[in-house]
Every structure is written in structure tokens, then in C-alpha cells.
Amino acid sequence: MTYEEFVNSRLPALLRYALMLSGDPHTAADIVQETMIRVQLKWRRVSRADAVEPYVRRMLTNVYLDWQRGSWLRRVTLRAVPDEPPPTPDHAERSADRDQVWALLAGLPRRQRAAVVLRYYEGLADQEIADVLGCAVGTVRANISRALATLRDTAVPAHTGGGS
Amino acid sequence: MDEDELRAVFARHEHLTPAAEPLKAAIREGYRRRWRRRLVLRSVGAAAVALSVPVPVPLSTVTPPALRPGPLTFVLAGIDRPPGADVARSDTVLIAHVPAARDKVYLVSVLRDSYVSIPGHGRDKLNAAYAYGGFPLLQQTLRSDFGIAVDGGAVADFTGLQRVVDSIGGVDMYVDEDTVSIHIGWTKDGRQKPPYLGTRPVPGVTPQRYRVGYQHLTGWQAVDFVRQRVLLPHGDADRQRHVRQFLTALLTRARSLLSDPQRASAFLDSLQQAITVDTGGMALLELLRAVDKVGTPIGLQAATSTLVADGMVGEVLTPDGTSLLAAVAHDDVDAWIAAHPGAVS
To answer: Rounded to an integer, what distance in angstroms lies between the CA atom of residue B41 and that of residue B33?
Structure first.
């Protein structure tokens, strides 16, 4: 597979994954851009991996986990365009509780959020998640249950009805 | 909070995913910038190692260092280390010279049997300089004998050269005389065997042949072709012309790579892994681009006449040969060619 083929077929999926991780379209684009620059620079090594996409997903996850620690971030994220406000359609009220969950996800520690996204959005098994995050399976499960507990505790008092 | 609800939250926000197409251009641009910066860091790093002094790394620089002004002179040496031998001799010595005007590139061959004064070793054949003192002594010899200031160079052995040629998918070149290999031949049942012992044919072995015309040569073929000397009518002079033609073909083949950052990077990597390159602190890519820009190299040979003395056969530079090397030293090759019509080959 050439780099071009990889980009053409997998870029949309990587962008979706980055969006779920970061919760914000601009940050998602920045994370993917940074990841793909690294992928292209090391393409020969990347393309030799047994499975290219998981390898790139791991690189992307690391970029996300390191995102605000690096000093280069400020340079990259300085932009004039403000974040798009979330769309407010007619059924805004009905989906308010779900958007609240989306907002709560953003407040989770990054590793917890990454584990949640990998299990419930990417549909990976716990062992695969452990490989992506470079930790033990037990740590993955602990992260996910802690994340779910936080979401439950915070979401329930605000909305006792439980959605629709 | 159940798990299906979480899945639904993710699915509902998929529509926020940024578009892929506009991002591709941003990735390309970011990659180009990063890649150029990496080249700078690499060449600065190499220079720092060479000088053994710490060099502050200009992180903000995004353009490669400018090529040094003035003429550029590089020595390309092809070395042969016969199996079992612990010294290698430079079988091919070629001076690549770009005048200060940067409008041409000359490839000047010096025959390996040319007698020169090797500092510390008296008069000997040029190919002995490499055996005595490696590339530095070869460089020193060119300076003390002819006043040629060498900016850098490359040393390649047969294996390295073969790898470089294969990494770019072979070369297309015009073979200007039928050439029979004394190194590679084939038996009737298809096994590879040397077809000659010295200059005597081995019965039952058909030598590899390179026929006149445009030929596509793979790595081993190209190397075998440029090695051939003893069966050619003019010996080393013929071979040196073949080497120049081969280098020209290699540059032509590399040309398409240099405009594409990704493939150029892979090519430079393979080049630096396969052969020893000293760019004199300048970025290799910029050097190759500068050479590439001025078009087809102009081939010249430092003329010699054969000398037999004490049972030894050698070559002595003729006045024309000496003046050509002096012209390289003084960046005056144009005028030399004007005064010696017919010398270009």
C-alpha cells in the first residue's frame, strides 16, 4: 500500500476517531494533521508494520494524549476562526441530555476518554485497547469503569428521567 | 448511563467530523516544511560530528543551508577490494566540478594508472593513494599535485553502487561499444561462472555481453559494465568514458526523484546507506539539485600517454592532461575546452 492509498482510504475514519477523542472538530483536524505528517515522514517504517491502520491509530492516540503537554501545540492551534457552535436543531431539547453526555466526555481524563472511545466507538476488544494505549488489560477496564461511573454520577442528578 | 446510549452519543456527533479533502493540502504542506527542516538538522548534525564540536541547531530555519559560493569540486572514487584483500584501491577517480557560475557540471576522469606524487610516498600510481591513505590522501594528492581544492566526495564499492542503482529501478543508458564481461558469464546449464581467467577465455562459459544501443541495466549489470577494462580497445580510457556515461544516466534517472520530497528522501537514504558521502557540510539534496539544474554533465578525460619503465607499465599525464587539471583548479574549464576542441566525450 502506498502512502497516497492509505490517506485516500483511511483519512475520513481517522478524522472521526480524532473527533471522538477530542470532542472538537478543529482539535481533531490538528491532531490528524500532526499524525499524518509523522506518518508520511516515517512511511517506510509505518508501511512495514503488520497492520498499518492500528499502527497509525496508535500514533494518533499518542498525539492526542500528548496534545497539550507539547509546547509546539500553541503554534499549531493559534487560529483566528472560533470553534463552531454545536448545531441547535428543533429537537435540541430532546437531545439535551445526550449533548450533556458529550460535554461530560470532554471533561474526562484523556486516557479514560481514549479507552471509552476505543471500546464504544471503534468497537475494539479490551486487549486491542491495551495495545493501543500501551498498558495492561486490567488498566483498560479500570479506566473504562471509572469513566462510566463519572458519567453516571454527573449525568443522573441533572436529568432524572433518563433521556427520551 | 448505559453503553448503547454512549454509542448513540458518538454516532450522533459524527456529523461534526471535519472534511478530509481540505486537510490533505495542509498535511502535504506541513510535511514539506518538516521534511526540509529535518534535512537541515541532519546535515548540521553530520557537520557537528565531523568537526567534533557542538553546533547550535537552528530550529527556526526552514530552508536548507545555501550552497557555498564559488566553484564546487567533488571527488568520486570507485573502489575495489578484492576478496581476501585488506586494502582497497581506487579503480576509478572522477572529479565532478561545477564552476562558480553554476551553469555546467564537468566530469573529469583521471586514469587510475596515472603517475602522480603522493605526499609521503613518492611517485606512484594514482590508485595507490587510496590504498596508502584512503580518501584523505587521495584528496591531498589532488591538491598538492594539481592545486585542486576538494570540497567533498563520495566513495562507492561495487556492492554499494549496485544497491543505489537497484533502489532507483535500474538505469537507461547508451552502450557505445560492444563490451564483453570478464567477470560474469554463464555455463550451458545456466550457472554463473567467470568467463575469463585474466584475458584467457574459459571454455564452455558464455560471457555476459553489453551490445551497442540503448540498454536498460539493472544494478549488477551496470556495475559489471562499468568494471570492464582489459578487453576494451582503449582499456581504462574506454572504461572511464563508460563510467561518465553511467553517472550521467544515474543523474537522469534520479532527476524525477528529486522533485518529489517523499521519493527523494528515500533515494537519499539509500544513497547514504550504500555509499560513503562527504558533502562538505552542504545538504546533499541541494547539491544534487544544483547539479541537476545545469543539465547533462560534460565528460572529459585527463589525457595520458603510456610509459613503460623498469618492466612496469603506467600512464603519464600529457601537457594537455596536466593543463586540464590545472583548469579545474582555477575554475577555467570553459577556456580549456575552447582551446581543445574534440576533447569532450
So the answer is: 13
Q: How far does Cα B127 stand from its chain's mean position?
A: 17
B23 contacts in A (CB within 8 Å)?
11, 15, 29, 32-33
Residue B253 amino acid letter: R
Structure ipTM: 0.80
For residue B51 the three cell numbers come to 568537526
Residue B193, SS3 per DSSP: strand
Mean pLDDT split into 10-residue runs, chain B, 345 residues: 86 90 85 72 52 41 58 89 71 90 90 88 87 87 91 86 88 94 92 88 93 94 94 90 92 78 78 79 77 82 80 83 94 93 84
For the entire predicted model, the pTM comes to: 0.55
Q: Which three cell numbers stand for residue B14?
A: 459524527
Give the H or E element holding residue B247: helix B236-258
Contact B325, B108 (CB under 8 A): yes
Q: Which residue type, as a one-letter code, is found at position B230?
A: V
pLDDT of A101 over the 60 cut: yes
Beta strand spans in chain B (E) = 72-80, 89-98, 106-110, 115-118, 122-125, 152-157, 171-175, 179-187, 192-193, 196-197, 200-201, 205-210, 213-217, 276-278, 298-302, 304-309, 312-317
Return the residue in A105, A121, A141, A164 with the most chain B beta carbons within 10 A, the one to mutate for interface testing: A121
Which residues on A lie below 8 Å from B18 (Cβ)?
15, 19, 25-26, 28-29, 32
* B148 and B329 Cβ atoms separated by less than 8 Å: yes
User: DSSP letter string over A89-151?
Assistant: -GGGTTTHHHHHHHHHHHTS-HHHHHHHHHHHTS---HHHHHHHHTS-HHHHHHHHHHHHHHH
d(Cα A130, Cα A117) in Å, to the nearest integer? 13
Give me the amino acid identity at A129.
I
Helix, strand, coil percent values for chain A (each to nearest 5): 70, 0, 30
- DSSP classification of residue B310: T
Predicted confidence at residue B95, as pLDDT, reads: 94
Is residue A159 helix, strand or coil?
coil
